[in-house]
Each structure stands twice: as C-alpha cells, then as structure tokens.
Specification:
Elements (H helix, E strand, L loop, with lengths): L3 E6 L5 H10 L5 E3 L2 E3 L13 E3 L2 H9 L3 E9 L2 E8 L10 E6 L1 H11 L3 E6 L2 H13 L6 H14 L2 H6 L5 E3 L3 H16 L5
Parallel strand pairs: 1-7, 1-8, 2-7, 3-4, 8-9
Antiparallel strand pairs: 3-6, 5-6
C-alpha cells in the first residue's frame, strides 16, 4: 500500500518551507495534496497552491455531500477559520505515495480515514518560533498580531507532550539548521520508501 508522509509541527516551525522543499524534490516522487481553508489569503499565497480558499457556504456544501475527511475550526480574533481536507480525488493510495501538511488533530483524523501513519514532526525552540512568527507577520500588508498571539498560545495546548505521545509520534526533527533538517527528513523518507537520493 502507498504511504502518506505527514509534515506537522507548531506554527513557525518551518514546516511550510520544509514541505515545499520535499515537494520540489523529484527524486522522492511524492504527490501532494492541497488542503482547504476559509481563512483569508496571505500576501504571496495563491489559490490552489498553499490551499483552496473557500467560504463557509462552500464548506457546508462539502460537509453535506460527505466529502470532508477532516476539519479543524479555530475561533480566531477575526472569527472562525476552518482548515480541512476534502475527498476530491487528490488522494489515491493505489497510485503512489503522498506528502501532506497539517496539525496533530488533522494527522489523527487522516489516520482514521486512510489507516496510514508516517509523521514527520518538526520541532523548534519556543523563543525562536515566536521571533519567526513576529517577523513573518510584520511582512504582511495588514499584520494580525492578536491572531499571532492566539495561535502561538493555542499551539502550546494543541501540541502538548501528552497529545504528541497519544498520537504515537516518537521521532522528531529539530529545525535548528534548515538544510540539515531537510536532509534528515529526506533520509527518513528514503528509509521508509526505499528510493535513492543522489
């Protein structure tokens, strides 16, 4: 059976950058899945690339059609933002291995749906993550610092040690050096997938 390599970690752990690097590595031969969200698009994001950006009505329509595999709702300072995965034909486990990115909650729901369990958990020291978060938000056309603080604190609860242990995640990849971290993850995928990297 094919595999889903699931990149996850707290906000500003570098998981988006790592995901993009793994996605672009043709030797790994991993297909990707684009998730859906109701949150506003950030500067430099494109619809259908980072996410499919939809409204609440579209989410409800997909739920009624029983197309939503997993959904996470966040009560932000700007209202409820939903992130979700849709059974839209992107994933076919009879036809190759996949790379996906999400939260601990979405990881567990994907396991329930697909029965796959290959987490790639990215970890960064708390102070460094906060500094990265502030710098990233500062570059937005309309910085949302209140939401940054809410999300940062929520991550501490959402990715508690108890929840990580409960999800069965044992291996962690320290992102102190981005290139080294990516190399270690590539080696892990090679080990699980038995593909070769030059």
């Amino acid at each position: 059976m094919s595999k889903i390599f699931f990149v996850l970690g707290k906000s500003c752990s570098g998981k988006d950058t790592i995901f993009q690097s793994l996605k672009e590595n043709k030797q790994l031969n991993l297909k990707t899945v684009v998730g859906y969200t109701t949150r506003p698009m950030r500067v430099n994001e494109k619809d259908g690339v980072e996410y499919f950006f939809v409204d609440q009505n579209k989410l409800e329509e997909l739920k009624k059609a029983k197309k939503v595999i997993e959904c996470r709702d966040y009560n932000t300072v700007y209202g409820i933002w939903s992130y979700f995965t849709v059974d839209d034909g992107q994933i076919d486990l009879n036809n190759g291995d996949y790379l996906y990115i999400g939260t601990l909650e979405s990881y567990e729901q994907m396991i329930d749906f697909y029965g796959v369990d290959l987490p790639l958990y990215i970890q960064v020291e708390t102070g460094e993550r906060l500094a990265r978060a502030v710098n990233r938000e500062r570059n937005q056309s309309e910085p949302k610092y209140k939401e940054l603080c809410r999300r940062f604190l929520a991550d501490e609860e959402d990715f508690s040690e108890e929840k990580i242990e409960k999800a069965g995640i044992k291996k962690r990849f320290e992102n102190n050096n981005l290139n080294q971290c990516i190399k270690e993850i590539e080696q892990e995928i090679v080990k699980k997938n038995k593909v070769r990297i030059k």
